[in-house]
């Protein structure tokens, strides 16, 4: 706050022009979620209000993110500097197509989950703070997708992690506590690894702004330990994204909380890890990622196959879904292991599909389990006769998650297989197809036993009825999956733009440093 | 100075990893605390160690008269300390609840979510 008489030339030190009104959209998702989260914490004693306010806020969040994606597709990546400091000294929020796309999908998923939670989270859960945690989780997720600065990314990871701890233990049943211990310790180690890598990054580059790092990579001496750095990042984010062999916290914890919490986690958290992998691997350090591509490809194949095989071995509905999440992560890593924009575009489309479908699947299985009175596959039966709409929705989601046309899982798999074949990685394409085949068997058997098999003499007395209103969020997400499957061009085009922006980030740098600065 | 701090950081990491590999949650908690401090030391060392003055301008000057210390690693560490402290507090309470509820702090015996003998999936239609 220098006075007008200050001898310092302000135009050299700070951003002097006010940002355009549309640019405020960049920080709005985070500000909205944190603000409402704080408000809901204050309204702790009014559980009736909480759900309505949270749902309204998440509805606005979807609109804001839709506006953001329109802004980004019209004018390219957008940057906003905090506190008017000039880059690279201030904290930057930079949104490119990939961030906006993931952010929009995340808000759609959160809205659907909030809608489902109105009938699922009881007053006790509301008093324990489900809705504030939900909004703070969304603040963390949006912040991670929009941050333009690595340390800021770390902070948003922590915000979403602590909110996810809170969501995980709501209800404090013994199995939740057990799951939370494993989830908590392993995820904390992963974020600490991320922080270690960020410390080295600062030591090597002297900057934390992503665009500045991209500019400085070519100027570094050959002796700079970039390989160590990238390996650390891959390890840390791989653990976050549940990549083999550091993924066993996921099946140990994802089936323990309330089903809507599982749906949120399955849709959002691992994808934030994938997003960070793409951001660091493809945009910041493409050369090092290239040298590590064989390692990533092997990890991807193992993640896909162990996920699908794990799903085959499960007798509990929710545990089976946990392994399906892992299998999907493997498919996304395939795109990371391939060079060029095609594989990355496939990963981005797969990420969007996986967010929608995995959340919807958890919600649908939650309703099925409630209806059947048990989450054990062997104890369910006859769901097809008793609740046709729910069974039909579940079947569509199973098809989608296995990658069968005409649903949303088909296109990203096709893109990834094509990209793998184009680069001569036939074995990787084969692994994708085999894992898709195994997933089809796992989900097919699940459907056959739990839905199609007649009820017979099995006891199914305890099941609740499922109201059409509870089906609404599942139906909406399923509809989104069908729409993406039938009309994939806009999403694929957006993903291609995003992938090109990642592989050749000149517009990203330009949005941070302005046009006159040479990259 | 830097080699000393580097060795100290390495020792911290070794202790932390050793403790985190333990079966008992209380040891893992101590490991988490040491790990956090190891990372803080690492960031501090990475920000270059200088025996310089703090970056405070004298009156009437636009730029510092001599070299000044780098304040950024300290800001980063401060953030990391606050975050890791809150996580440690959460995990401590969680471990206490787990000990009270599950009656053990041995992770080998915390098998509620993953039973020792899992139920097999149904084999026939």
Automatic annotation (TrEMBL), chain A:
Membrane topology reported for the UniProt record: Multi-pass membrane protein
Entry's localization field: Cell membrane; Membrane
Keywords from the UniProt entry: Cell membrane, Membrane, Transmembrane, Transmembrane helix
Keyword Transmembrane: yes
InterPro entries: CPA3_Na-H_Antiporter_D, NADH_UbQ_OxRdtase, ND/Mrp_TM
Domain NADH:quinone oxidoreductase/Mrp antiporter transmembrane, first and last residues per copy: 147-439
Keyword Cell inner membrane annotated: no
Highest taxon, organism lineage: Bacteria
Family: Belongs to the CPA3 antiporters (TC 2.A.63) subunit D family.
This protein's name: Multicomponent Na+:H+ antiporter subunit D
Natural source organism: Pararhizobium capsulatum DSM 1112
